[in-house]
């Protein structure tokens, strides 16, 4: 059955319009980062930075302690994601494969944990960390970021575990594997997409977190989101540098995304489809 | 890869009921204490983390909400109990209830838009040719990956009354009254920009996942529907939606939570203005608590926010838990 | 975001700076250390200054001077952003090792003094040079008769204008009265300059100057520590009407403050006749558009008569020592150093800000902005110096959102004032 010319054209035309809609703000961020100051605030928008400059990128990278912030951000984000994957995987396996008293309560708690309004709980988190003498350290950040992504991770992974055909696992058991071995050899490889999908989500969340690090780590152990805001000063808002910094800040997310992309995108659904 | 796994599970007519009740439970049930305690050991780390890192702060938050905790008390480390006065202040204030209503309507409108637009884009992805699909996917991914803070800054500019591209463009289209239009001067226009931004940020998640879900539905099903003479709408209603129902349920659940909690977007764009007319609950809690340094009051509002969200979602929890029974 | 450029700010180091010759010996505190010279080895003194307050030359010199005085100790000068500074400072003061010395805006000082987080400096006032401080500039640092901070520097808003645009409109001298100003602006507009005067609708500290000049009181003292707002007065109406008129000579937004977008960025484009700003804003504009270098001039906001310029809001910053400081002696000596004639002078010279003693004003010679600004400061005032005033200025500031913007958009001043007063009252009565 051949589609009419119209039937072939409109999806593509719509797709182009949508593409522009979704990409334009990103495009604007990146191009602004290359524009000289006078082109940035301009009544006639400058769409293509003809007189491109790297000055804003230099300003962004030369900010004090930049590389320390990069290291801290990666340390905290990667540790939080890995930690939550381990913790969540154990729980997800139990919930998806075993029946036990309290299972439903646990699921309910996980669903509710998803709703925690972290932005407005900063002061109680702060007081706890302060009273434990753990301010200005990466450890509490890592733990709380882990907690921020844990519910979603459990939720998604359990869909994945459930989606692995039980027969595979059982046949391994029949072959004399222990339950643990069966998990490591059979189930775990099949979970790769789910692990990637959830780690992507976790990465974005932890990478972007701002309110908590602002108040917990005032003197040291700071992360990149604080760097993003420092170009708006009393000397004037350096929008060029802000956008250059934002561009650099987005890069790792995009790289992680492209790296995980194919598996990840399908991954979230597998979890969600399983509901 | 995921597509295949899921496909195996969701493709009907494969003769195996999805998620047959775990027979192994009964079979291995009698293997003794070790096996019986296994699930509890597995969920133990998650429980400990949740109690220590979420439960405890929540409890502290509730405790604070019964106190007068301002800059003075915080610096002096003194505790000043006020009983329920933070709560009675809020519950008897019309500002609070207006904010609640506004938050609920805001959430409903945004989630409806996100789900509708996300579904439409997801279906479109399924229909596109390979190359065009990749292009659109790339666009979605870029929008999704952009940090919220950066996205908000860019939107502020796009809609700036003097230097914004949007006003410039509308004026170019001969809509001259839009030159210099102040998007952040009115409640509705401010909400429109916030909504546009939230939809822009959220649609990719829905669309990409829906598309991935669609690829798991076998082509024969669509073929069969078409043979029966079903149009696009009927196909969606009778094939796509029922199969992906868990996906729609789960995604709507997440979006409701995310939109209701959306703070940065609403606060950074216009700080709840003009005249507080776009304050949603989290923004209100932040302005009262952190902005005015009345942390006790802020804690009370955030506790109420949690209660309201729980109430809103209770129906949802029931559906989701019921689904658990079917697993 | 960045809505609350609290007290002030400073300078555009790069352009205005006349860099100062190498530092001399630590002029300030002669060390009266009880313990031996090694007692402070390995210690670090943490100093918080707000973004823009510490010009590079000054920072380098004072660090060197301090580390010379305390051999083996280090001073760590940390630049803080205005965004979220209140919460940051409050929480920091509650910790066991807070910053030892920190900058706090003059409108905020009573608030923090009342929290008990600031060390009482009454006994050290003389040794800090307090006998020579101009009393009006010290007012914000005193709370309930005690000295909780020390005045550091000040700045006032003056009219920054583009000489070329004014000359093109045939204007040969700067206006001495408000009538002259409006005549000049009309002439500039007639020449096709859209923004003869750029005055955004929520430039709160600029408006405070208008209120002061009109004789409006922001709050009434009802005795017994009770205050009520008083925007609903004919004087305040005059102030906002004048503000509205000035705003109408340009296209500045009525519901934005001077930082969104930065008015200096707008001025930098070279097609704005004038704006009401600080020295660093003018310097920032020149940094963005060097072509303006010789085109920028300054004059004080004129008053109704030619004899005195209009009253202005004196923005300023104080330096304070935290109550919980682990290094009180070092902190005190740092304060002495920073407030010494040498470093006050250097700050004024490099940053173009008004020093805390009039005897040091000579350091502003050659700095066009600084000279005009110091003149304007002789006839200035501040916001009400009561602790709960800090609540009023918390975002969203009711005076800007409920009074200024609505009136500029056409609401009746009296009606808007009633709404704003109600909210200001509400905040003045909030506990701290």
Give an overview in words:
The complex is a heterotrimer of chains A (275), B (327) and C (432). Chain A is an all-alpha fold and 275 residues long. Chain A has two domains: 1-53, no CATH class; 64-274, MetI-like (MetI-like fold). Chain A is built from twelve helices and two strands. In chain A, β1 (232-233) and β2 (236-237) form a beta hairpin. In chain A, α8 (166-174) runs antiparallel to α9 (179-208). The longest helix of chain A is centred in the C-terminal third of the chain and has 36 residues, at 239-274. The radius of gyration of chain A is 23 Å and the shape is globular. Chain A starts with a helix and ends with a helix. Residues 271-275 of chain A have low confidence and may be disordered. Chain B is mainly alpha-helical. Chain B has two domains: 23-64, no CATH class; 67-326, MetI-like fold. Chain B is built from 16 helices and no strands. Chain B is flat and about 75 Å long. With 432 residues, chain C is α/β, with parallel strands linked by helices. Chain C has two domains: 13-155 and 315-381, D-Maltodextrin-Binding Protein, domain 2 (3-Layer(aba) Sandwich); 158-312 and 395-428, Periplasmic binding protein-like II (D-Maltodextrin-Binding Protein, domain 2), CATH 3.40.190. Chain C has 17 helices and 15 strands. Chain C has helices at 13-16, 56-69, 85-93, 109-115, 135-138, 163-168, 178-190, 204-214, 234-247, 263-268, 279-288, 328-339, 341-351, 368-377, 389-392, 398-408, 413-428; strands spanning 44-50, 74-80, 101-105, 142-143, 146-147, 150-156, 158-162, 195-198, 219-221, 227-229, 272-277, 296-299, 312-321, 354-355, 380-381. Chain C starts with 12 loop residues before the first helix and ends with a helix. In chain C, 58% of the residues are buried. Chain A: Its main location: membrane.
């Amino acid at each position: 059955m051949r589609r009419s010319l119209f039937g072939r054209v409109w999806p593509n035309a719509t797709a182009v319009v949508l593409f522009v809609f979704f990409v334009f703000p990103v495009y604007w961020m990146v191009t602004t980062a290359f524009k000289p100051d006078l082109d940035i605030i301009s009544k006639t928008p400058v769409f293509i930075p003809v007189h491109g400059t790297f000055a804003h990128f230099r300003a962004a990278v030369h900010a004090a302690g930049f590389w320390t912030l990069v290291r801290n951000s990666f340390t905290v984000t990667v540790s939080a994601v890995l930690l939550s994957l381990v913790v969540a995987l154990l729980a997800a396996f139990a919930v998806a494969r075993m029946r036990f008293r309290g299972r439903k309560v646990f699921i309910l708690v996980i669903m509710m944990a998803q709703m925690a309004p972290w932005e407005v709980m900063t002061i109680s988190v702060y007081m706890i960390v302060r009273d434990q003498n753990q301010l200005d350290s990466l450890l509490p950040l890592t733990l709380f970021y882990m907690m921020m992504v844990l519910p979603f991770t459990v939720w998604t992974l359990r869909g994945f575990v459930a989606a692995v055909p039980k027969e595979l696992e059982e046949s391994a058991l029949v072959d004399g594997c222990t339950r643990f071995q069966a998990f490591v050899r059979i189930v775990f490889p099949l979970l790769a997409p789910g692990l990637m999908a959830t780690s992507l989500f976790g990465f974005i969340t932890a990478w972007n977190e701002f309110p908590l690090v602002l108040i917990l780590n005032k003197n040291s152990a700071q992360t990149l989101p604080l760097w993003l805001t420092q170009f708006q000063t009393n000397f004037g808002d350096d929008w060029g540098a802000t956008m250059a910094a934002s561009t650099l800040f987005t890069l790792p997310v995009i790289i992680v995304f492209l790296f995980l992309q194919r598996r990840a995108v399908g991954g979230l659904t597998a979890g969600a489809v399983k509901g | 890869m995921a597509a295949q796994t899921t496909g195996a599970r969701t493709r009907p007519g494969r003769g195996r009921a999805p998620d047959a009740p775990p027979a192994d439970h009964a079979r291995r049930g009698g293997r003794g204490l070790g096996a019986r305690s296994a699930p509890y050991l597995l969920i133990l780390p998650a429980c400990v983390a949740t109690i220590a890192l979420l439960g405890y702060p929540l409890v502290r938050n509730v405790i604070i909400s019964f106190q007068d905790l301002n800059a003075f008390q915080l610096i002096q480390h003194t505790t000043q109990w006020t009983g329920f006065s933070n709560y009675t202040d809020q519950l008897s204030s019309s500002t609070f209830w207006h904010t609640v209503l506004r938050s609920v309507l805001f959430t409903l409108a945004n989630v409806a838009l996100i789900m509708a637009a996300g579904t439409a884009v997801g279906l479109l992805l399924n229909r596109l040719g390979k190359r065009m699909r990749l292009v659109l996917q790339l666009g979605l991914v870029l929008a999704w990956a952009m940090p919220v803070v950066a996205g908000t800054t860019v939107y502020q500019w796009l809609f700036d009354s003097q230097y914004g591209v949007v006003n410039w463009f509308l004026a170019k289209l001969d809509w001259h009254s839009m030159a210099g239009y102040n998007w952040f001067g009115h409640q509705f226009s401010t909400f429109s920009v916030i909504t546009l931004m939230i939809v822009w940020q959220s649609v990719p998640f829905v669309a990409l996942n829906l598309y991935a879900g669609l690829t798991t539905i076998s082509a024969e099903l669509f073929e069969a529907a078409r043979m029966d003479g079903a149009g696009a709408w009927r196909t969606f209603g009778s094939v796509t939606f029922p199969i992906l129902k868990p996906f729609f349920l789960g995604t709507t659940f997440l979006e409701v939570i995310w939109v209701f909690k959306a703070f940065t977007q609403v606060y950074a764009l216009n700080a709840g203005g003009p005249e507080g007319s776009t304050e949603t609950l989290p923004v209100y809690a932040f302005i009262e608590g952190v902005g005015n340094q009345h942390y006790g009051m802020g804690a009370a509002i955030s506790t109420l926010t949690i209660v309201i969200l729980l109430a809103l979602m209770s129906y949802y929890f029931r559906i989701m838990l019921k689904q658990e029974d079917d697993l | 975001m960045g809505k609350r450029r609290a007290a002030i700010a400073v300078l555009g180091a790069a352009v205005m700076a006349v860099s100062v010759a190498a530092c001399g010996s630590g002029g300030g505190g002669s060390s009266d250390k009880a313990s031996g010279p090694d007692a402070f080895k390995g210690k670090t003194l943490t100093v918080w200054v707000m973004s823009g307050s510490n010009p590079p030359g000054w920072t380098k010199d004072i660090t060197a001077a301090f580390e010379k005085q305390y051999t083996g100790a280090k001073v760590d000068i940390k630049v803080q952003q205005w965004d979220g500074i209140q919460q940051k400072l409050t929480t920091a003061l509650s910790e066991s090792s807070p910053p030892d010395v920190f900058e706090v805006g003059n409108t905020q000082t009573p608030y923090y003094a009342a929290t008990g987080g600031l060390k009482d400096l009454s006994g050290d006032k003389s040794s800090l040079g307090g006998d020579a401080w101009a009393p009006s500039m010290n007012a914000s640092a005193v709370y309930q008769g005690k000295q909780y901070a020390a005045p550091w520097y000040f700045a006032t808003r003056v009219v920054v204008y583009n000489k070329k645009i004014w000359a093109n409109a045939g204007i040969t001298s700067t206006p001495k009265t408000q009538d002259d100003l409006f005549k000049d602006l009309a002439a500039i507009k007639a020449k096709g300059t859209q923004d003869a005067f750029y005055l955004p609708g929520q430039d709160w500290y600029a408006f405070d100057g208008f209120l002061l000049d009109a004789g409006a009181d922001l709050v009434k003292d009802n005795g017994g520590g009770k205050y009520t707002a008083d925007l609903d007065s004919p004087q305040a109406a005059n102030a906002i009407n004048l503000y509205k008129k000035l705003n109408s000579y340009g296209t500045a937004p009525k519901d934005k403050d001077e930082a969104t977008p930065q008015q200096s960025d707008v001025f930098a484009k070279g097609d704005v006749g004038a704006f009401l700003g600080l020295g660093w804003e003018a310097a920032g504009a020149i940094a963005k558009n060097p072509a303006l270098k010789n085109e920028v001039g300054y004059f004080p906001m004129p008053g109704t008569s030619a004899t005195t310029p209009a009253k202005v809001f004196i923005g300023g910053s104080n330096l304070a020592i935290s109550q919980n400081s682990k290094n009180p002696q070092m902190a005190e000596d740092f304060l002495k150093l920073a407030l010494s004639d040498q470093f006050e002078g250097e700050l004024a010279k490099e940053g173009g800000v008004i020093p805390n003693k009039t005897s040091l004003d000579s350091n502003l010679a050659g700095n066009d902005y600084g000279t005009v600004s110091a003149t304007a400061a002789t006839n200035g005032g501040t916001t009400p110096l009561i602790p709960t005033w800090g609540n009023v200025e918390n975002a969203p500031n009711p005076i800007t959102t409920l009074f200024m913007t609505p009136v500029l958009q056409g609401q009746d001043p009296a009606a808007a004032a009633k709404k704003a007063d109600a909210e200001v009252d509400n905040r003045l009565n909030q506990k701290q």
